[in-house]
User: Fold this.
Amino acid sequence: MLRRQPWTQSRRLAGQHQHGLLTNASCSRHCPVVHRPFSSSSSIFSPSSSRPSGSASSSSPPASAPNVHRRHPPKHRYPPPSQQPEPIMYDQPAIANPIETQKARDNFRKQSRRVAAGVAVALAIASAYWYTADSLKAEGPEHPQLKGLHETPEEMERKVQKAQKELNNSGGFAIIAIKRSTVIAKAVALCVWDYRKTLNASYPSSSESNEALRQCHLRSAQRILKALQTNGGLYIKLGQHISSVILLPPEWTNTMKPLQDQNDPTPLYELEAMFRSETGSSFSEAFSEIDEKPLGVASLAQVHKAKDRKTGQWLAIKLMHPQVERFSDVDMKTVNYLVGWVKKVFPQFEFTWLAEEMNANMPLEMDFRHEAENARRAEKDFADYRKTSVYIPKVPWAYKRAMALEYIDGRRPDDLAYLAEHSIDRNKVSQELSRVFAQMLYLHGFFHADPHGGNVLIRPAPRSSRSPHNFEVVLLDHGLYFDIDKGLRTDYARFWLSLLSRSTPDVMAQRRRLAKRIANIDDDLYPILESAITGRSGLEGSDPDNPNGVKGKKRASSILDMETGSSMSDDETDHIRKTVMEKEGLFLNILEVLRRVPRRMLMVLKLNDLTRSLDASLHTTHGPTRPFIIAARYCALAVWDDDQHQIKERRKRDGLSFGLLRDWFSCWTNYLWFYRGLAFLESLSNIRARTSKILVYTGAIASGKGVSSASKKASGLEDQSKRRQKEEEDRKRAEAAVQKEEDVEGGTGLTKKSS
Assistant:
C-alpha cells in the first residue's frame, strides 16, 4: 500500500493535469517556467489565458469535476495528453512593499512640483531683470571694458556726444585754417632767419663753423617738427617725407623720424564719435574690450587694440583722426598756393613736384578701403612663394575712415633688445628686408612706398609660417603703393647692374644712357641722380669736375668697391654735407632733379632711402655691400626675364638665326654672372657677419667684461645706445634753444632776465 502511494499520487496528478485542474502553484512546482514579456492581452486575470492552445472552451472539463481515485492502474491505455497551454510569463517580480513604494512615488512627485515651481520663479525674475536692465540702458550705450581709462561710462558717453556735435559743426573753420597756416609760416620764417644769421657769422676755425651750422640744422628741424606736430594730418606726411630724403643733413632726417609713429594721439571719445558716424555702431556694439592707449599714432590715423564682440578675436583697429579729412582740403590748397607763390618769387626754387604728389596720393591714403585692397593684392603677390618671411595681416572689414586688421604682436626692426630676447639674428632681418622690397619692386611691379620703421614689424615665426628663419617680416600701412610698368623697372634694374660693374668707358656711357631713360636726366645732373640712388658720394667718372671722393681719395669703381654700404661713415656724411653747402648751385640742381624725375621713379628713390635707413638702424655686421648685392640679384632676374621675352619675340618675327643664339648666350651668361656669382658673394657676407659677431663677443669677454655686457655688445645694443644718446643730447639742446626763443617772444625772457 505504502509502496504504491507515490505511483498513485503521480497518477492522480497526471489525471488532474490532463483535465486542466492543476493550479498555478502546483504547476510551478513541477513545470519549468519560461519568462516572456507581460502584456495586457495575456493578463493573468483573463480567463482565456489558462485555456489550452487550439481547444474550444466546451471541450474543457468543468472546474468542479469530481476527483476519481483509483487504487489500481486502469487496464486500458489512455490516449496521449492534449497540447498543453503555454506557461504564463512575468516581466518583473511582484512588488515586495507596495505601500512604501507608493509613498516614495508620491513624495517624488511632490518634490518635482516644488523644483519646477522654483525654476519658474527664477526664470521670471531673470526675465524681469533682463528687460528692466535693457530699459535702464536706453539712455546711453554700454561701453566695453576700457583698459587704462579713468572715466565712467556716463562721462565717456557725454564726451562722445559733444565730440559728435563738434564734428558736424562747421563754425570757426576759417579761423582754424588760418591758424594752421600761420603756425607753419612762422616756423619757416624763423628757420630762414636762423640760417641767414649762422651763415653770415664769422668763426675762428672751420670746425667751429661746421658745429654752428650743425646746431642751426638741429634748431631749424626742431621748429619745423613742432609746427608739423601742432597741425598734424598732411603736415605730418610732409615731415615723414623729409625724414626719408637721404641727401638732406642727418640732423633733419633724425629729427623728423618721430613723425613716423610717435605723434600726439587723439582722445578715444573723439575717435568713437567718428566711428559711430562712419560705421553706424558704437564701440560697445562692435568690441567687448578696447585699449585706450594706442599701439601707434601716425599722420592720418592711430591704431588701438580691441577684441571683437562677435568673434572674440583680437584686432588692431585703425581709426582716422577726426579732423584730418576736415582740414586736408585746406592744407592741400595752402601747400599748392605756397608752392605757386614761391615759384613766382624764386623761379629756380621748384617744388611743384611735391604738390603734385600730394594732390594725387593724399585722397587715396585717406580711404582705408583702398588700403585694404592694396593689402589683398600684396598678399596675393606673395601667395605663390613656397618660402617667404613676409606676412600681411588679414583685413576683416574696412570703411573709408575705419578698418580692422588682424592683431600682430611684434616690434620695430630697430628694437634690438627684442630681437636678442627672441634669438633673432639682426643680420638675417636685414637680409630679409632687402629681399622683400627687391621682390616687390623688380618682380611684382607693385611696391610698398612707405616702408619706414613704424610700418614694419618683426615677430617670431609661428608654427604655420612659411618663413625660412625663426622670424617673420610683417608689413603694415598699405595705403601708399605704386605700380611700375615692366619697361621702367627693367631699365632701372639694368642701371643697378651697371653700377655694380667696373667703371669702364662703355659702362659709364651705359649708365648715362639708362639715367636718361629712367629719370629724364642729362649728363650735367647725372652725378646727383647717382648719389640719390646709391646714397653714396658717387662712383668713378660720375662727376668729371670733382674726381676725388671722401678725404681726397679716389672714387670707387663700382658699388662693390665702396667702403661703406647702406650706412654712411661720418667722413662720407661730412663730405656730402660739405659738397651740398659749398658747391655753388648744387642745391638748385637737386631741386631740378626732383622736378624732372618721373613720379614713379621718385617713389622708387624714396623706397631706396627708407630701406637703407632700416638696414642702418639694425647695426649689422655683414659688411657694407650686402644690401646692394641682394638688390642686384633680383635685378638680374628681372633683366633675364625681359631678355627671354625679347628673344622670343625676335624668333617669332625673324626666325632662328646665329645672331639670335649669340644674343641668347650673352644674356644667359650675364644672368649667371650676376645672379649666381652674387649669390656666392652673399654667402661670403653671411660668413663675415657670423665671424664679426663672434669676434666682438670674445673680444668683450677677453677685455674683462661679463657675459651680459658681451652679449649686449654683440647684439648691437651698445652701439645703438651710444648713437641714441648722442641724438637725444642734440634734441634736448635744440629744444632748449627753441623754447628760449619762444620765451623771449612771449615776454617771459625779459622777466626772467630782470629777476
User: Anything to note?
Assistant: The first helix runs from residue 5 to 18.
